[in-house]
Amino acid sequence: MVEVLQQLMNGLVLGSSYALVALGLLLVFGVLDIPNFAHGELFMVGALSTAGLASMHDFPFVLAALTSVLIILVVAFLIDRVAFRPLKDAPHTAVLIASLAASQLLIQGASLVWGTKPFAMANPLPGVLSLGDVRVSYVRLLLIGVVLLGVVAVAWLVKSTSFGRQMRALAQNGDAALLVGINVPRVRVGAFLLGCVLAGAAGALLAGTQVVSPSIGFQPTLIAFFILIVAGAGSIWGVVAGAFVVGIIETFAAAYIGSHLRLTVVFAAVFVFLMVRPEGALAKGKVL
Question: Is 233 left (phi over 0), alpha (psi -120 to 50) or beta?
Answer without folding.
Answer: left
